[in-house]
Amino acid sequence: MTKSDFGPTDAVVGVIMGSRNDWETMRHASEILDELGVKHEKHVVSAHRTPARMVAYASGAAERGLKVIIAGAGGAAHLPGMVASETNLPVIGVPVQSRALQGLDSLLSIVQMPGGIPVATMAIGTSGARNAGILAARILALSDDTLRAKLDLFVRKQTDAVLDSADL
Ligand code: RP5
User: Rounded to the nearest 10 degrees, how much is the dihedral formed by the CA atoms of 25, 29, 34, 37?
Assistant: First the structure.
């Protein structure tokens, strides 16, 4: 097995990122998936530095049982779009905040896909990563009533927390 091979998994969501340095952002996707009890795997897969590994991951994802891919990258953030070109699974893109341009470069790189290859693009940074996890769960909940109930509870708790501190 080489570093471009991906073994068997019981994960239904793949959380991938272009660099170890993206984990500080992408962990927010992983944490909400943990909270909702969604099995997921995490890997560094770089479109530029490990292109063969990226193609192997994306082209084998559906066969390995993954249902949704969350891909985060910063700067010239080609990972989500390139992954979407190698799989028909839904791909959710997270623009990681870059140092030079504060993530505007990442956002535009991810969102401006040519017609025919969709990437669901989230907000820049940690909110985007968290929402990517929630969106992945919403997609999976279309065919999973238990997960649907967990999402309903999550939203109710979030609403209650705001209402509890709404009056200053
Ligand atoms: C992208 O380049 C990664 O997604 C990362 O956000 C950015 C910078 O990578 P490092 O130089 O910090 O590894 O591929």
Answer: 180
Ligand 1 mean position to 135 CA, how many Å? Answer: 24
Which of helix, strand or coil describes residue 51? helix
120 with 92: CB under 8 angstroms?
Answer: yes
25-70 residue pLDDT tens: 999 999 999 999 999 999 999 999 999 999 999 999 999 999 999 9
Q: What are the Cα distances from residue 102, in Å, to 10, 15, 123? A: 35, 22, 12
Closest residue by CA, ligand 1 atom 7? 74
Are 29 and 130 in contact by the 8 Å Cβ rule? The answer is yes
Give kind and range of the element (H or E) at residue 40. strand 40-44
Nearest CA to ligand 1 atom 6: 74
Q: What are the tens digits of pLDDT across the range 102-149?
A: 999 999 999 999 999 999 999 999 999 999 999 999 999 999 999 999
Q: Which domains does the chain have, with CATH numbers?
A: 13-165 (3.40.50.1970)
For atom 3 of ligand 1, which residue has the closest CA? Answer: 18
97: Cβ below 6 Å to ligand 1? no
Q: How far is CA 143 from CA 108, 137, 139, in A?
A: 32, 10, 8
